[in-house]
Amino acid sequence: MSPISDPGFLLTILTQAVEREPGFWNWAFHWFSQEIVVAVIGLLLIIAFVTINAIGLIYAELKIAGHIQRRPATMEVGWHGFLQPVMDAAKLLVKEAMTPTAVNRPLFLAAPVIVFLPVLISFIVLPFSEKLIVRDLNLGLLLIFAFSALNVIGILIAGWASNNKYSLLGALRSVSQNIAYEIPILLSAMSVVVMANSLKMSELVAAQDKIWFFIIQPLAAIIFFVATTAETNRLPFDIPEAEGELVAGFHSEYSGMRFALFFLAEYSNMFIVSAVFVTLFLGGWHGPILPGLIWFLLKVYILVFIVIVARWTFPRLRFDQLMTLAWKVLIPLSLANLLVTALVIKLVR
Amino acid sequence: MRSVEPVVHLTVLEDILRIPRASSLMVLTFGLACCAIEMMAAGAAKFDWGRFGVIPRSTPRQSDLMIIAGTISRKMAPTVVTLWEQMAAPKWVIAMGNCAISGGPFAHESQYAILNGADEIVPVDVYVPGCPPRPEGLIQGILAVQDKITGGQKNNVLRRFDRRRGDKRDFVKRIKRID
Predict the structure, then answer these.
(1) Cα–Cα 20 to 30 A to A173, which of A16, A37, A141, B104?
(2) Do the strands B126-128 and B92-96 form a parallel or antiparallel pair, or are they unpaired?
(3) What is the separation of C-alpha B101 from the centre of its chain, rounded to a whole number of angstroms?
(4) Which residues does residue B57 pair with via DSSP β-bridges, in sequence order?
(5) Which residue of B has its CA nearest to A94?
(6) Which H, E and C letters describe B86-151, residue by residue?
């Protein structure tokens, strides 16, 4: 046993520290009251928000899909069926969570958690308003991109551990798609970061005090929007779950609450991606009269609405078309955009 | 086919949970013959089983209700059984159309290829007769499954649609207005 994991050793060090330092308990109390309380409140708020957001978005998805297809969609539970997502969630909670015999058990159980955890972490740095942000980190934007990349690993693990050919095919497609679309996202975000000269979320928003980056950088904004839609596996790009070809893609073997976790992660990712878009291009919490929080949520949900309508309007791309779009169109364009932006900034300043 | 009874029963909770189970039936999209066309019509505009919270899922792991829509040939029967066994625990089956009920027009003495009804291989909850049944018939069958889950129509407090009398809110008018 190494000394650091030995409880007796740790206790000795702690008692020594307490004896030597009379202000230890004072310090410990302050640390506890500030760090832990902020962390716990932040976590509770985030979990509550993730759940309510997912429930609202599922209802929106059902209803918008219905009205695009000229049918009323969910009508029976509650007023215009607004309890439907609650019913779905309650049913999935008490449904049997199967573990098929042929799966790789530890990986199979870990995959939904690995997909869901980055969602919670990304919420830490989202600037809902000037004050309402759990931690305004110096590398906030980088943190979101780093953890949203972790999502792919969860999907790959899910597909691999399921021991099912459709799951594996879906996971492989998802990985190649995410690798392809990660690059234009980062390049188009970089051209905004170069202009704002910061990776801090609050400074990115503050830089758009007078004019939104959407107006200065329309190309980067469009590339970012398309690529993030692909990153969240939404329908024009939902090749990993293509129902006609791959049963349900990487989550074919998941039932009950584990499947619900994948679903929750998908809808939360939709929100996160739109929130990052609003922060980078649409001026975050800036807006006249109304408070910042309302402006932020308004902008985010308008974007989410566009994403949902796009899902029920456009047909699915073929896989080679998807790859062509990423490698031959989006990446060269975003690279050129970044170079031109850097050149102009160098000349102007 | 034998279901194992749970060791502990949470009576009140289980009664409450019947309502979500009934109002969010996820259907395994699984068409065997011409009845499947009527099943698709039931999911599309005009009929729209989405009103009752029915969502088609393509994987058996995530579905609650299996609609056997059409003729079951002896070659297809093992697949049907496999799919039924792959479904997660609280699960129900509708046999749609005469072929899935009793073999329909294929049931005669020299028949060797077609199964005489779905209940030879899986436990069927609700039979929807017709050749093929109309989409309204299938939707009534789904409502019957919901009533079976909640133990009678009066227990399903959230659903306002009457299985026999139809909608009190006069849906027909609304559908006509949309068209």
Answers:
(1) A141
(2) parallel
(3) 13
(4) B28
(5) B17
(6) HCCCCCEEEEEHHHHHHCHHHCCCCCCCECCCHHHCCCCCEEECCCCCCHHHHHHHHHHHHHHHHC
Range of the domain at A256: 95-348
Beta bridge partners of B55: B26
Q: Indicate whether A161 and A273 sit together in one domain.
A: yes
Q: A39 vs A29, A144, B171, CA distance in Å?
A: 15, 18, 50
Same domain, yes or no: A176 and A314: yes
Contact A125/A201 with Cβ under 8 angstroms?
Answer: yes
Does residue B122 form part of some domain? yes
* Same domain? A61 vs A208: no
Whether residue B4 lies inside any domain: the answer is: no
pLDDT at B94: 92
Q: How many domains does one find in chain A? A: 2
Please list every residue in chain B whose beta carbon sits closer than 8 Å to the beta carbon of residue A73: 48, 50-51
Domain boundary among A56, A78, A94: A94
Q: Residue B61: which of A78, A88, A98 has the nearest Cβ?
A: A98
Q: Could you list the mean pLDDT of each consecutive 10-residue stretch along chain B, which spans 179 residues? A: 66 83 87 88 86 87 90 91 88 90 87 88 91 89 90 78 67 53
pLDDT in tens, A29-84: 777 777 777 778 878 888 888 889 888 999 999 899 888 988 888 888 878 888 88
Burial of A181 (0-12, 13-18, 19+ CB in 10 A): buried
How many domains does one find in chain B? 1
B63: CATH: 3.40.50.12280
Is this complex's ipTM strictly greater than 0.95? Answer: no
- The nearest alpha carbon in chain A to B63 belongs to A255
- Cα separation, A50 vs A46, in Å, equals 6
* Domain span holding position B53: 11-178
Mean pLDDT of A287-308: 87
- Of A47, A73, A94, the one marking the end of a domain is A94
Structure tokens at A55: 């429930």
Chain B contact for A95, CB < 8 A? Answer: yes
Q: Looking at this protein, which amino acid is placed at residue A99?
A: T
**Cβ separation of A72 and B48 shorter than 8 Å?**
yes
Which residue among B17, B61, B174 sits closest to A254, beta carbon to beta carbon? B61
CA-based nearest residue to B67, from B37, B108, B44: B37
Those residues whose C-beta lies under 8 Å from the C-beta of residue A93, and which sit 6 or more positions away, are A256, A257, A260
Which chain B residues have a beta carbon less than 8 Å from that of A247? Answer: 58-59
Are residues A148 and A86 both part of a single domain? Answer: no
